[in-house]
């Protein structure tokens, strides 16, 4: 039998809490949401309002998008972060290639070998 959206959200709420290694009582201390209410949310017997969802998302360090739908919708910011990381790693590769070239020159007494150093990632 297919799960309801509320049941799926309840499973995500529970998984996020467990992932953060928090008990329902610890979540109560952090959010002021009653442990019985948290239990009802996690078992899909009650639907959290946006304020409760926001508190839980902050506490569990997850997005509201994910809590409600199971998907992240901020892919643009992730794409920019990935592109920035690729540029950072490429800079490291370029610096290492330059160091290898310098080492080759020193080892060969300032005369470059006829075979150029292979560039990583090429």
From TrEMBL:
* Superkingdom of origin organism: Bacteria
InterPro entries in the record: Cro/C1-type_HTH, Lambda_DNA-bd_dom_sf
Please name the GO terms that the record assigns under molecular function: DNA binding
Q: Where is the HTH cro/C1-type domain?
A: 13-67
Pfam families per the record?
A: HTH_3 (PF01381)
- This protein is called what? Helix-turn-helix domain-containing protein
């Amino acid at each position: 039998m297919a799960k309801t959206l509320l049941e799926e959200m309840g499973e995500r709420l529970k998984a996020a809490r467990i992932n953060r290694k928090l008990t329902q009582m610890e979540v109560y201390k952090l959010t002021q949401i009653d442990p019985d209410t948290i239990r009802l949310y996690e078992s899909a017997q009650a639907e959290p309002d946006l304020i409760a969802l926001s508190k839980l998302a902050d506490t569990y360090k997850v997005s509201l998008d994910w809590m409600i739908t199971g998907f992240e919708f901020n892919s643009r910011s992730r794409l920019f972060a990935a592109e920035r990381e690729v540029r950072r790693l490429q800079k490291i590769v370029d610096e290492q290639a330059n160091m290898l070239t310098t080492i080759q020159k020193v080892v060969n007494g300032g005369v470059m070998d006829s075979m150029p150093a292979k560039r990583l990632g090429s």
